[in-house]
Amino acid sequence: MENKTNKTSKTTLSLAIALGLLSSASFAAPASIPTALVGSWVYSQGSSTTYVNTATGATSDPGGIALYYQFNADGTYGYAYRESVTNYNCTTTFTVYKAGRLQVNGNKLVLQPTQGQATYIATCSPSLNSDRALRSDELRDDPYTWSLAKDNGGLVLTTPSGATGTLRPWK
């Protein structure tokens, strides 16, 4: 049986691979991106609870979320979000991928998505499953302020409403 760290790493790696494929499209982006921002950044959080059917011994994966950003020196970016919840051996997973242009002006960062994909998978209700391109109204600009954590602890992103998250470098 895998431990939580391996599952989180596998989830993050699969997001990174899928994001790499999505963000490989060519975009015209005249931008000067700070070198400190260029690279891969990740945030993940998982549940340590695993469902075990006591009658059969069957287990299911714990739930969790993962965010992955890839900022490129040419002014392009890729983003992936995955959330997974397991209840009574039924897993629901929601994944969003976006790619587009990145603009940086001082500590202001704006992600301008030009394409994206949303996937919903419900193992116990497959009629609800979907995989679709994001609509134009779902491809809105995402503004943030950014900074680097003082102790080399990662990238701090803050939304206009003040919500803050710290992502660690993905190497």
Fold and architecture overview:
The protein has an 8-stranded antiparallel barrel with strand order 1-2-3-4-5-7-8-9. Strand 4 and strand 5 form a beta hairpin. It has 171 residues and is mainly β. The radius of gyration is 17 Å and the shape is globular. The protein contains 1 helix and 9 strands, in the order H-E-E-E-E-E-E-E-E-E. The protein has one domain (4-169). The two termini are 25 Å apart. Residues 1-28 form the signal peptide. Keywords: Signal.
Oligomer: single chain
**Percent range for β-strand residues:** over 45%
Unreliable stretches (pLDDT < 50, length at least 5) are: 1-10, 21-30
Percent helix, as a range, is 10-25%
Arithmetic mean pLDDT: 83
Alpha-carbon Rg, integer: 17 Å
Spatial order of the strands in the main sheet? 1-2-3-4-5-7-8-9
Structural class: mainly beta
Choose one word for the global shape.
globular
Sheet having the most strands: 8 strands, antiparallel, barrel
What is the H/E order? Answer: HEEEEEEEEE
Kindly give the count of domains. Answer: 1
The total beta strand count reads: 9
- Distance between the ends: 25 Å
Number of helices: 1
Task: Write the topology of this structure.
Elements: H1 4-22, E1 39-46, E2 64-71, E3 76-87, E4 90-105, E5 108-122, E6 130-133, E7 142-148, E8 155-158, E9 164-169
Antiparallel strand pairs: 1-2, 1-9, 2-3, 3-4, 4-5, 5-6, 5-7, 7-8, 8-9
